[in-house]
Amino acid sequence: MVKVPFTAEAIGTYIFAGPDTLEDPRCTGELSAWRAIVEAHGTGDPVGDFTVYFDFCGDMESHYGNGEAYLVDESNDTLFLEVSGQVLDGRLDSHPEYVVSYWKDNIGIGGGTGKYADASGTLISDDFNSSLDNNSHHHWTGEITMREK
C-alpha cells in the first residue's frame, strides 16, 4: 500500500433530481425530501479518466447523504466513496462569478475493487452548480492509500 496525492476534476449531469418517487425509493428517514442521481466524467491523479456515480438523498435545508457513490476508472476498477454534507447558496470569493451554489465537504474513501481494494483516505470537495449550465462541477483534492500499480 502507498499513500499518494489525489486530485480530480469532473463535470456531472443530473440524471434525476426531485422527490423520491422513483420505482426503487431509497430516501426515507431524516434525509427524505428529495433524491439526486448524478453521473460525472472527469480525469485525475492517480485515477486517470473516470466516471463517478452519485445517488443520494437530501432535506429541505440542502443537507445530503444517505447515498451511494463510486468512481470507475479506465481500467474498470471501482473506488467506493462516502459523501455527505450541505449545499450552500451563493459562492465563495475563490469561485467564478457564475457559481450559484457550492459544497466543500469531506469525501471518505472506503475501499473498492482491483487496485482500490482496501483503499482509504479523505478528499475535500470544492464543487458547485453554475448559472452557465445545468451541470455539477467537481474539484477534489486529498490523499489516498491504495495498492501500488
N/C terminus separation: 10 Å
Question: How many domains?
Answer: 1
Shape: globular
Radius of gyration: 15 Å
Order of helices and strands: EEEEEEEEEEEE
What profile does the largest beta sheet have? 8 strands, antiparallel, barrel
Instruction: Identify the strand order in the major beta sheet.
Output: 1-2-3-4-5-9-10-12
How many DSSP helices?
Answer: 0
Summarize the amount of helix as a percent range: under 10%
Content-based structural category:
mainly beta
- Quantity of strands, as a count: 12
Instruction: Please mark out the parts with pLDDT under 50 across 5 or more consecutive residues, or reply none.
Output: none
Residue fraction in strands: over 45%
Q: What is the average of the pLDDT values?
A: 94
Question: Would you mind describing this structure in some detail?
Answer:
By secondary structure, the protein is mainly β. The chain has one domain (2-146). It is built from no helices and twelve strands. The chain has strands at residues 2-18, 34-45, 48-58, 63-73, 78-83, 85-86, 88-89, 99-103, 106-112, 120-125, 127-130, 135-146. Strands 1-2-3-4-5-9-10-12 form an eight-stranded antiparallel beta barrel. The radius of gyration is 15 Å and the shape is globular. The termini are close together.
